[in-house]
Amino acid sequence: MRIYRSLSIFAILILLTAVAVAMNKEEEGGKLIARAVEISNIRAPGAPAFRVKATFQASNGRPADQGTYSEIWASREQWRRETGIAAFRRIEVGGRRKKWILDNSESVPSGVLTVLRALNWDGMSASKLKIERVENKTLGGVRARCIEAKSDFSKEVYCVDPEDNTLLVHESLSKNSHDSYVYRDYKKFGDRLFPWSVQYRREGQAEVEITVSELTSEPSPEPSQFAPLSGALELTNCALKEITPPRQEWAPEPNFPSAEHSHNALVVLGMIVGSDGMTHHVQIARSGGTAFDMEAMRAVVRWRFKPAACSGEAVATEVSVEISFRRNF
Q1: What confidence score (pLDDT) does residue 240 get?
Q2: Which of 67, 89, 130, 153 is 20–30 Å from 10 (CA)?
Q3: Domains contained in the chain, CATH given
Q4: What is the pTM of this model?
Q5: Partners of residue 184 on adjacent β-strands
Q6: 233: closest CA among 119, 122, 90?
Q7: Is the pLDDT of residue 61 over 70?
């Protein structure tokens, strides 16, 4: 009986130790991600106004196109971005609770969306991640502390330099895709460190290379630059913490293309879910092939959502979706 009790107490101690270790890992991982975002988020509340310029090359498996990016930021409610590549041009302006997007073409190159994600840190957060592991790794000769976590749809990996708390790599892995951002050449800007070089990789292959050429203070930006854009698409500019995301209410599956011989394919679409709950401006962010793209878009334009809400008010917002095609035998 004494042996039984001793073993029971020992088992309980092991269990409590395992729980404590798991809690410590989750706490450490969350703090590492939060600190990496904080130290590089030049758009954080109260941060000084700035101007940034960058160039980028987007290959997407073809000879690289050259693009440019510029931004003037005064606050969350006053900013302007301009992005161009080849013949495409996009202007974005942020205002109080609203933002406007004006494109000169209905077809948006995927490289443009990649650049906007890579240089904007506002949406990066550990709050909705389930952290599973924190471990040491060496990346290109640099010691890193890497956090493995799960979100609702994918596995996320963040690797942080423990010396200065900067983010080195952010990977996103789902059943059908493997995307990553590699951040390098950090330079000081005020009390923050910002990467002047970002590489986007898909399935391990470099697809977009971004190089910052200028990052300077902009103490007195011209207010007229932040005026609403005539003829532009109007979306919400609410802070993430204020937004309730859209929820699918009716989403029929796409048909598998009858003439296709492939067993599976992945299509990634970007779109607007309007305040009416309907899909608008559906764009192909990642092609799975012409036939699969057409079937994916044909399905998505029929989808219906409960729209996103900002402080209880229905608003239009941008979303991306992955559509996986698998042939059943």
Answers
A1: 74
A2: 130
A3: 40-236 (2.50.20.10), 240-326 (3.30.2420.10)
A4: 0.79
A5: 197
A6: 90
A7: no
Tokens 């502390």 sit on residue = 145
Coil, strand or helix at 298 = helix
Q: For 34-80, give the DSSP string.
A: HHHHHHH-TTSTTPPPEEEEEEEEE-TTSSPEEEEEEEEEEETTEEE
DSSP 8-state symbol, 228: P
Backbone phi and psi for residue 262, each to the nearest 5 degrees, phi listed first: -65, 150
Residue type, 92: E
Q: Where are any strands of DSSP class E within 167-263?
A: 167-173, 178-189, 192-202, 205-217, 233-236, 243-244, 247-250
- Distance in Å from the first CA to the final CA of the chain: 58
Single-letter code of the amino acid located at 214: E
Section 66-91 average pLDDT: 94
**Contact predicate 225/72, CB 8 Å:** yes
10 Å Cβ neighbour count for 1?
5
